[in-house]
Amino acid sequence: MKKSSLAAKLIALSACLLLSAAPVYAKGKSSVRFIMHFVDPASSPYVEGGKKIAELVKEKTDGQITIDVLSDGELGGEWDTLEMAVEGKLDIATCANSVLTNYIPQMNVLDQAFLWKNTDEAHAAIDGTLGDLIRERALSLGLHIIGFEESGFRNTFSTKPITSIEDFQGVTIRTLENKYHQAAFASFGATPVAMPYTEVNAALEDGTIDACENATANCLNSGYYKITKHVTNTQHAFVYIALCMSDDAWSRIPEDLTKPFLEAVSEGVAYERELLSKANEDAVEKLKDLGVEFHEIDREVLKEAYLKASEENGFRFDETWLKAVDEAVISAAHQEG
To answer: Can you tell me the distance from the alpha carbon of 218 to that of 236, in angstroms, rounded to the nearest whole number?
Structure first.
């Protein structure tokens, strides 16, 4: 990172921390202000969800708690800002579950490719026992997981058509810094490369990579479509966005406002999930209008390749957390029935 860029971020962070710590007043009552940070663009469903949370928190706490939402990686990447939250230097960091796994190893159960058949299973897990396990472990880090937005199922964006597993040969693809995601693409025959979200566009432009993967809406919101004219519905992974609040920030919530604060966050999370679903649907039509082609692929073939690689790599997962996964699948099936 260039020194000027680092200095600018440090100045921005210092200003945010001062703002967060400064007491303000609303309707004669002392008030607390928090900073919530996203690496994603302001137009993304995640940030829109964060803004909705801020709006609802202010409304439900009668203005006594306010949240300023920062976007576009203003303070750094997910790793950087999660570490800030752990150290109490940032009120609320947001990150993909795979990033949080580096602090909570048992969460690697969520990083398996083709884990969920549908969003009902994914929601049953994170809103149930599995989500509780994550919250419990996070407390030992000094983090309060106040909610889970989601990036949802991820698809593949590429410069050439990918309609079969053979088409992945010779493809260099950006993935999250996650060995399970990387093992999946390697098993397809691609070359996975981990890099920060904020560097993907430049890497596509200079040809360092020729593919990336994310929620379909992000192909539009992040401008990837200008280079990746093909989207393959791999749905290889489901990603959650954890809202990680520092212990210091949590301690500043007045006791009588804890319940309305969490209710507001919960409603904002539900809003983001609905927004993401609609954004993905809308993005498909908009991307088609922009000349992007969509392709289907045999996901069972991809899944078989990943499971073989998983066994060869000796991937193992905590039994308690695996049971929570099974519980979610059963719960979702009952709801459908």
So the answer is: 16
Q: Could you read off the pLDDT of 90-145 as tens digits, one per residue?
A: 999 999 998 999 899 999 999 999 999 999 999 999 999 999 999 999 999 999 99
Do the beta carbons of residue 89 and residue 17 sit within 8 Å?
yes
Residue type, 25: Y
- pTM score: 0.84
Q: Rounded CA gap, 226 and 207, in Å?
A: 13
What are the φ and ψ backbone dihedral angles of 61, each rounded to 5 degrees?
Answer: -105, 15
One of 1.25.40.10, 2.40.50.140, 3.40.50.720, 3.40.190.170 is the CATH number of 3-336, namely 3.40.190.170
* DSSP one-letter string for 90-140: SSEEEEEHHHHTTT-GGGGGGGSTT--SSHHHHHHHHTTHHHHHHHHHHHT
pLDDT by residue (tens digit) across 213-268? 999 998 998 999 999 999 999 999 999 999 999 999 999 999 999 999 999 999 99
Quote the distance between the C-alpha of residue 214 and its chain's center: 10
Cα 19 to Cα 127: distance, rounded to the nearest angstrom: 33
